[in-house]
């Protein structure tokens, strides 16, 4: 069915690369044999999974939707892919995305004409940057998918396409084999149709990795507050004994009526199921976005400096006659690199790289100080978050995913200069960039409303937990589901 949907709904542009039918059929047969002999490798054996194109799948092209990586084949499987394959997952293909993960709407892939469309209504965006991963699951081209989240790229497309998603704690899933955008923010996260699927994928992928020094053992961390025991005591659907923080600072003037109503309804539902609501204040929330757009471009410009048209991917004609770098003078080489980067990077990547270069350049001390300030602010944001969780003894906080009643319409953004203005997109990350600044887990939970006012688009809300309490948060999501 997935393969059929991939081909019949090609116009969604959710995939950049699909595996060959023969290979897929062979793997399906092998999986079938395992089921027939009563020995499936796991609950995800044979499950069709789509992978964002910035995660390595061995021998498949991996471009992060950038022209600069055209033709680059992944020499290895990313650790998460290796673990999924080991449990029988069926990797169907690589999904389209905003170049290097920079964007919120799925319109900055390497082919400008191939905007990723929302399967619910193709006149609308599917969110971003993991737009293809969300569209693929919504269109049943895969049963689950992997995205990456720097400042909302898993949560937001899941919201637009009515899916569940998990942005895990920072360092919980290995990023070995992931093309990085912002090293101190990036995490890999699953999207699916149920919390059970999220749970299965997460538990298979998580855990220490010798190839990634950021990926640590969370066993001890998750015992700090001993929340796991609490969830074991609960009956199905019950939130008895669960304390939920209601964050004063999330209630901002710009929040639309739909989100506002939904938050109120959610509070009632949580109380009905036995949860206790606790008013909390996180005054530093408003600094998460300025922090994000200071540190992230700096890390991006540094991470992307390796793409010079020499080491990886597409090589450009060096001097019309020769395409080799050997025997060139320094100036010729620099000219070449400049030309390659000018031609191959898209507009959004250039914006981030140029901003990052300014911030990091030794010529601009004022800017350098801002990067240091951003890091100090992050430390304060984290301390505030943890101390509120500890002092108030709360299990989670609730939050909208994004301001706005539905995803933007493609025709309202493309060709409209004010909407193409990057600041419009930056503001979209107000709620989503927060859990990346704290490095803490967040789950998007879709809501099927019957209210006709908002048309066919579902909405969603987010629950956010304490650092390392990903399993606890997953269990709470299941109780709410
Ligand atoms: N929209 C944000 C950005 O462009 C988030 C992207 C992401 O999480 N990868 O940076």
UniProtKB/TrEMBL annotation:
Q: Pfam families recorded for this chain?
A: Amidase
Quote a single Gene Ontology cellular component term.
glutamyl-tRNA(Gln) amidotransferase complex
Gene Ontology terms describing biological process:
glutaminyl-tRNAGln biosynthesis via transamidation; mitochondrial translation
* The Amidase domain, residue ranges: 1-474
Which superkingdom heads the taxonomic lineage of this protein's source?
A: Eukaryota
Instruction: Give TM regions.
Output: none
- Give any GO molecular function from the UniProt entry: glutaminyl-tRNA synthase (glutamine-hydrolyzing) activity
What's the protein name?
Amidase domain-containing protein
